[in-house]
Design brief:
single chain, 1416 residues, alpha+beta, 5-stranded mixed β-sheet, 5-stranded mixed β-barrel, 31 strands, 48% helix, globular
Length: 1416
Amino acid sequence: MSANLKDLIDGEADLDDEEEDESFDEETGETRDRPSKAQIDDSSEEEEDDEDEEEARRIREGFIVDEEEEDEDAEERRRKRRKRRREREEEEQLDEEDLDLIGEANPQWERKQSEKKEKSFKRLKRGHRDEEPVSRPRGLADEIFSDEEEEDADDRAYGRSSHRRDDEFDDFIEDDFPEDDEERIRRKADEEVARPRDKGVALDTTGLDKDALEDMQAIFGNGEEYDWALQLEEEEQEREQNEQTIELKDVFEPSQLAEKLLTDEDNEIRANDDPERFQLDRKPFKNLVLTGDQFKEEAKWIAALMWPKKQIGMRSELNTPFQKAIGKVLEFFTVDGVEVPYVFQHRRDYLIHAKKVKNPKARDDPDAPEYNVDADKLLTQDDLWQILDLDIKFRSLIEKRNAIEQTLDKLQLEANVEDKDDMREMTAKAQTLEELQDIQDFLNFQYSAQLKDIAAMGDGASRELKRPGGRTALFERIRKSNAYKMVEAYGITPDQLARNALQDPSRKKVSAEDDPRLPVDLADSLADHEFATGDQVMGAARQMYAEELFNSPRMRRLFRETFYQYGLISCKRTEKGLRKIDVSHPYYEVKYLRNQTIPRMAQHPELYLKMMKAEEEGLIEVRLHLANEPKFRRDLFSEFASENFSEHADAWNRERQLVLDLAFAKLEKVVGKGVKEAVRTACQDDLLKTCRKLYFERLDQAPLKPKGMVLGTTPRVLTLSNGMGDPNRDPVHWAWVDEDGRVLEHGKFVNLARDESQRSAFADLVRRRNPDAIGISGYSADTNRLIKDVESLIREKGLMGPEYDDPDMNDYRSDLLDVIVVNDEVARLYKDSPRGVADHPLLHPLTRYCIALARYMQNPMKEYAALGADVTSLLIHPYQQYLPQDKLHKHLETAMVDIVNLVGVDINLAMNDSYTAHLLPYVAGLGPRKATLLIKGINANGGVVGSRDELVGDPERHKVPVLGPRVWNNCASFLFIDYDNTNADSDPLDNTRIHPEDYDLARKVAADALGLDEEDVKAETDENGPGAIVRKLFKEDEQEKVNELILEEYAEQLEREYQQRKRATLETIRAELQMPYEELRKNFLSLKPNQIFTMFTGETEDSLCEGMIVAVNVRVAKDDFAIVKLDCGIEGRIESHDVSSHRPIKDILHIGQTIQAKILDINRKDFVAKLTIRDDELRKPFKRRFDLDEHQWDRNLESMDREEVQEKDKTTGRTQRVIKHPLFKPFNGLQAEEYLGGQPLGEVVVRPSSKGNDHLTITWKVADGVYQHIDVLELQKENEFAVGKLLRVWNKHTYSDLDELIVEHVKNMARKVEELMQHEKFHKGSKSDLEKWLTTYIDANPNRSMYGFCTDTKHPGYFYLSFKAGRSSKVLNWMVKVVPAGYEMHGLDYPDMRALCNGFKLRYQTEMQRQQRGGR
């Protein structure tokens, strides 16, 4: 490739003087002289309509852009401004009267001048073009990938146009509505008034003498006096125009706006004064308004769904109060527009059923109260979230019901259809979407012709219903033919049959009546042009009746209820699952599971979700069948069969049986599928609630509380970690974080176990910084050694923690520093995250890890809140991968909302601390959009909030409203402001959980506690403001006096006189006046040994347990024992009696040898295991124990499958290999993928190959969820089990050993993958996501083109290069393969991403030129 062409593709070549005289021929590739001006003009006359030329033109105007381009809309605005400027200049010319006044002596002056200026303009225009340097035509690739946009030639101002005046041809084209004289005069007058006056335009004074010129200037001036004003006016107009027209969507791509929550929809959410989460949840039902009856129905509907579980711990008489409580909560949500935290905190009285009962102690104790209050808690905070979720489902139910009722109305009014099947009644009574869907399917089938006519008329209501297809057309033919009389001859309608089967008490049982003729004879008599023979008539009739039975809503309901009651779920492995699901596979638990009832699945939701996931992957088939199917069939037939006894009746009953069999198969399949999905949804909901509960437990922990500190106080922390390294050889990173969260010092230690200088340095650091605690964590089993080293160091050096008051000794004392093992799940995400790098760009990732550990100890809630959408990356539940990620995120978010509103947010601290600001989106009423609006508004008001009321505006203090009244009402009590007793305007109630609506109540309680009467209160408040009473209570330190008040009587008075239930609110006031915003979270959680073991090793009790056979590496071999190391990093011990041979162990095992051993016992606290290598033990395969009997577990099939697999292994000669290499694992492909799932990208596993002992497989992690399995052919093998001396990959790459293969082949590819994934054009989503993004981008920028890369998940190691050349073009995809030396595309190699992108552009240029030449 020539240097000039390379520069051309890079888009960086500059033209020198010689290049300006030549251009590049895109067809021949030769240089040519630049065409002359005449040639340029002539070329404009050529017209080419070929589609390839049009495509090339679009591409040249701006194809795949490597960098940010100037927006086309901005160019359009500049073009309009230039046009307005030219028109303004034309208007600035002197009008006819002026010119006539100037040139009275020469009547022809005006015309000559005008013609002269027109000619000079033409010459000037051509002259400019000739004089302007013409650059060589740019290459096609340079044009389509350029970052610049050229202005159109028409937009360049070569000169000012001549003065335009009324012409005699102006009225040549008559108006459609001719003006009369009066209108024309008025229009002329308006135009004269609207026309700008002269603005000092330069005139050609040819033909004017000096005196005339001086007279003209004396009359009109020279126009220069007001140039400054005109210039300012023009600049102001241009600035206003820019402000009015340029919007965010004109600058940023739609995907960027959506990511930053800056779309028009996001702005609408910000502006709307409703809680953000409510707006998002109710978005599909924005226009749905529930009636009063529907509102009452919803309360009953939700209560019916929740009561079965709630009644377990409640008395039956609480059912009515429970339903009333739900109705009240719905009113709070819907009418008042308040969120769950508000209801739980400030409307708690409505969640409790309180009843006064006589106090039995009142007889004997005169001081005892006469009555006690017996309170039952009806609803918890979890219940409130469930009610909110069910409210959305009910709205969906109502919306679908309304649509069906509208369709029924249309059928009645426009098609005169009578509701013979009681569809309206069924619709009104339907309790589930499935029932409504059944009705909709029935209408589509039964009235397909009528609905088709309504749809043809453009009826809006029919849009809710799918249009009838070809199958319905077949049934319409049957309805219109004689064959339908055969259907009627079955003697009972499908709806009547369904009523019989359901034993509908509202209708009498209907018995089938036999036709006088035999079925065959009747069918022969009904033959017509549609169905010419009796057999065709009978076939059509059977099919029609079966379809009517299948579409009957009542029959479907019968099947659905029967499945829920008698359904059994069984699993059958597929051929794919036969070998893939082995004993160690997570799906083995369901591989042979059978005859599981639906109630049992509801009790074990994770088991059912695992089944469904395995079915999605094609490994098993989940079958739902009826335990009582034979009886159910007999009972159903008995309702269908004739009660007559004769051969004639038997013939009709045989016909009915055939019809029933047809319908039964369809109903079983469709209804069974629906039931399976309904059970799946129920199991997901149950597991989601469990995940929410577990996550809330992690959030519900206060900062670490060392001895002597108040719960909730932030400690000073020193954290250490060895990461994956050996603490005796590799650096141990540490970070010191003070109580304000600032990282004041960090560094490294090496070998704290033995290096005395390092141990002394550690002691000096501790004594200098005086930490309240030391935190340690890591992600290797060696971290356990680091913990022991630090603990021994603290004991040896006598490093003490903070002092605390010991009540037993009545003195201050201190203990040895606490060493805390910290949960590192957040720190692992933080250390390499963009947020972590932005916070500490110069620090080592392990140091950032230590910082995150320290902040977790100081406030776990803030660390979890800072994760945002990444929270689903945490392992909350071992089966959470079977849950929809959007639902999981929403449920985890509700847990965060609960805890944030429990703790509250210091709004002024959030304005100055980004970590605290992460909490704002979870405050009641807010969300990510309204939180940013809140911060922006507070900054506009000065950046500091003085009182809660300021947030809704304070005109006296010049504070603009930041939030709307409804959102403020939600969030007010959860945003607190520190009380400043030196500031007279500071209200202590703003630092409590008391809502502003209850401030008067709180002040009343404070006044009663102080013993002030109304006159005292008035005098105090008149002098010092409304908050004076509470300030007085705090100032005099009399808060304890509120405990002396009897608030029950006050609560009764409020309820009696004002209908306000405030018992719980008054108790909250009592608590908050004594200790404002008291820490209500539980103590910092200490990890259990099993949790620490899993965190350091990655092994759970399921993945590593007794009885498993694992690969171990020998580290020490003595006569009577051996020390080995398991793959997870823990040590194992093999005693002499656990070896088959009687020889010394050192003669059997060698250091560095990798062997198979069985686990006898695991000590998870000390990270050690007992192992055996006895042959008799190794011959016993590991088998998981399932507590299931023969009826629930198919042991026969399990045994047969095991024998079949063993037989296949014998046939293929496949045996288990053990290779001495640290990366070798005795895994199959799925196990390797599961092992690498939690590892970083580029990690490798060497494993046996299914192709035999002369092959190995290298599995490496290409991307999340994408793993490439590389087949390695072994050559020059010493024996069957030895590794070949030559290893060949892809028949082209040869390596001498595994290490060279991994480094030179796999690791090089991993680096190339990383380079590609870090490229600006790489997209993390799927190919369809990238295609959607390209389409959206091109729709927003129709004159451009774009390309991007994404992962090919179906072909690991390959990537898609997707591009779209224009709006009318399709998205094309080229494959890019990652190879050790770079990338391969269309058979050509490219060393890096720059070369790949340029190669793509050049190839596309070549393809387009080839198409153009072919088109010509």
